[in-house]
Design a protein that fits this description.
elongated; 4 helices; 3 strands; alpha+beta
Length: about 80
């Protein structure tokens, strides 16, 4: 792990991006802010992502559920 200032990062961005491939770079900005620069490997989609639906598909499903609930309520009231 290497600790650097934000100005050091700004002045030597390529150097620290290259170092972040193999080690964690901690960036200290002022007295109260700390950031970590690390390399992130590509994440393979998992089963949850494969089951995901689009916002449009979700809205269609919600609308169908609301219509069904309304029909059931009307049938009970009649």
């Amino acid at each position: 792990m290497r600790v650097i200032s934000s100005s050091e990062l700004r002045n030597n961005m390529k150097k620290y991006l290259d170092l972040a491939v193999n080690e964690k770079i901690v960036i200290q900005r002022g007295k109260n802010e700390t950031f970590v620069l690390t390399r992130e490997d590509y994440l393979e989609p998992d089963e949850d992502l494969k089951r995901a639906v689009s916002a449009q598909d979700l809205l269609v499903g919600i609308e169908a559920d609301i219509r069904e609930a309304y029909r059931k309520k009307q049938a009970v009231e009649v």
